[in-house]
Amino acid sequence: MTGRTAEHIVRNLRLIVERINCKRGVAELGKSMSMFEAESPISCQIIAFPLTKRMAKIRDVAAKLMEKTTDRQAEAYRNQIADTLFRHLERIGVPEDEQDEQVGAFFTAVELELSRLYDLTEDYGDTSAY
Who has the most CB within 10 Å: 36, 52, 80, 84? Predict the structure, then answer.
C-alpha cells in the first residue's frame, strides 16, 4: 500500500467517524430535549462527493450533448442537468456559493470530455458505439 493510499484511507475513516459522532450527538440531543431547547447546537458539516469526480455522469452528459442536433436542444439539456445538480446540492445542505462552484466545475469537466470525444470523432469517425 502506498503512502498516498494509506493517507486517503485514514482521511476517509476520520470523516466517517466524524459523521457517526455527529449522528450520535444529534440522537442524544433528541433524547434529552428538543432541538429548540438546546443551549449549544451540535454542528455537523456535510461533505458532498465532488461533482467533478463523478466521471460516469460527466461522460454520460457529454455523450448526450453530442447527440443533440441543435444548439437549442443542447442548451435545454444543459439547463435540465444544471437544475438537477443545484436541487441535489441544495437538498443535502451545500451553501449556495459552493453550489455555483461545484456546478461550474462540473460543466468545465463536461466540456473537456466533449473535447476529447470530438477528437476521437475526428481520429476514428463515428463514436456512437461509445
Answer: 52
Q: What confidence tens digit (pLDDT) does each residue in 12-43 have? A: 556 555 655 555 554 554 555 555 555 556 67
Q: Under a CB-based contact definition with an 8 Å cutoff, are residues 106 and 58 in contact? A: yes
Q: Hey, is 49 helix, strand or coil?
A: coil
**The residue count for the chain:** 130
Place of cell 455523450: 63
Q: Nearest to residue 108, comparing CAs of 120, 100, 96?
A: 100
First-to-last alpha carbon distance for the chain, in angstroms, is 34
Q: What are the angstrom distances between the C-alpha of 38 and each of 22, 26, 46, 62, 93? A: 15, 11, 21, 48, 21
Phi-psi label, residue 7: left if phi above 0, alpha if psi -120 to 50, beta otherwise: alpha
Classified as helix, coil or strand, 9 is helix
Cβ-contact 89, 103 below 8 angstroms? yes
For residue 81, what is its C-alpha cell?
A: 442537468
| Tally of CB atoms within 10 A around 78 | 16
